[in-house]
Amino acid sequence: MKNDIPVYDISTFEEYKNAGILVSRFGHYSKQYLHLHSAHRHSFYHMVCFTKGSGLQTIDFKNYPVLPGMIYFMTPGQVHSWAFESEVEGYIINFSENYFKSFLYNPLYLENFSFFDEHSGDAVLVLPEQTMTKVVSLFEEILHEGKESRPFDADLVKLLMLNIFIQVSRGLSLKQQPQTNSYNQTLLKSFKKLIETNFIELRFPKQYAELLYITPNHLNALCNDLLGISAGQLIRDRVILEAKRLLINMELSIAEISEKLAFSDPSYFIKFFKKQVDSTPDKFRKQDK
């Protein structure tokens, strides 16, 4: 079986592999790992804050400008690339999925932050000036802790990182999003989790409704109320995202991608993709080159 696009583990960064974390000034990182400018995936969490520079970055086939004051968060499995137009500076932290699990009583704590949900729309942000000042100060403290070995330095780095997450989240709260039923939000989060682990095998809302112990009508109404799309469309969007991730690997044929996504026939996959994207898989692949 041919490999997918490059997937980098935290162990790729040898000097940090034992700690499960990489912390660096972005300019140094960008020059040291030039191959990471091309499309690739991570098996770890990835956070970048830009303080200087311009250009374009692509995260799961959506383009975002590179701007001073911008911070973005990526979860394991997402595809991204950079195309810088000028010298870029800032901060980067990569950390493994298990980095906080032995430190926090609640192993799902990061799920409290909307920017670690790739579907939330909060993963790429331009920070308010006051928040940016606080965040830059915290990044500098983290870099300082890495210069020498001192008691509890690893724990302090985790605390400083959590402080960054909290400061960014507080900045987000200024958007004053309307209050929604917490039960419905929890149910939607559970539905998204189930899609993430089952979208290849389970394609119909009724299958997920059974797992959630609710009716398909309830699930569909929930998605329409909170997201403005149907439950079925949310499932189809996840299938299409994975198809796009696979299509940028030029070594995989359309038939192989169809098989990976459990379509019974390549022609059915092509029809499905064209209906959702308004482009054939082959045209999409050529456009993304």
Task: Give structural notes.
- The protein is of the alpha+beta class and 289 residues long.
- The chain has two domains: 167 residues, Sandwich (Jelly Rolls), CATH 2.60.120.280; 107 residues, Orthogonal Bundle (Arc Repressor Mutant, subunit A).
- It is built from ten helices and ten strands.
- Strands 1-3-8-5-6 form a five-stranded mixed sheet, with no helix packed on it. The chain has a five-stranded antiparallel sheet with strand order 2-9-4-7-10.
- The radius of gyration is 20 Å and the shape is globular.
Number of extended strands: 10
Kindly, what is the distance between the CA atoms of the first and last residues, rounded to a whole number of angstroms? 22 Å
Helical/strand content category: alpha+beta
Tell me, what is the CATH class of the largest domain? Mainly Beta
- SS field, number of helical segments: 10
Our estimate of the beta-strand percent is 15-25%
Element pattern in H and E: EEHEEEEEEEEHHHHHHHHH
The CATH architecture category of the largest domain equals Sandwich
Radius of gyration: 20 Å
Largest sheet: 5 strands, mixed
Remind me, CATH topology of the largest domain? Jelly Rolls
Mean pLDDT: 88
Strand ordering within the main sheet: 1-3-8-5-6
- How many separate domains make up the residues? 2
Query: Could you give me the name of the CATH homologous superfamily of the largest domain?
Result: Regulatory protein AraC
Helix-residue proportion: 40-55%
Described by the principal axes of the CA atoms, the overall outline is: globular
* Weakly predicted, low-confidence segments: none
Protein name: Helix-turn-helix domain-containing protein
Domain HTH araC/xylS-type: 189-287
Pfam families: AraC_binding, HTH_18
Keywords: DNA-binding, Transcription, Transcription regulation
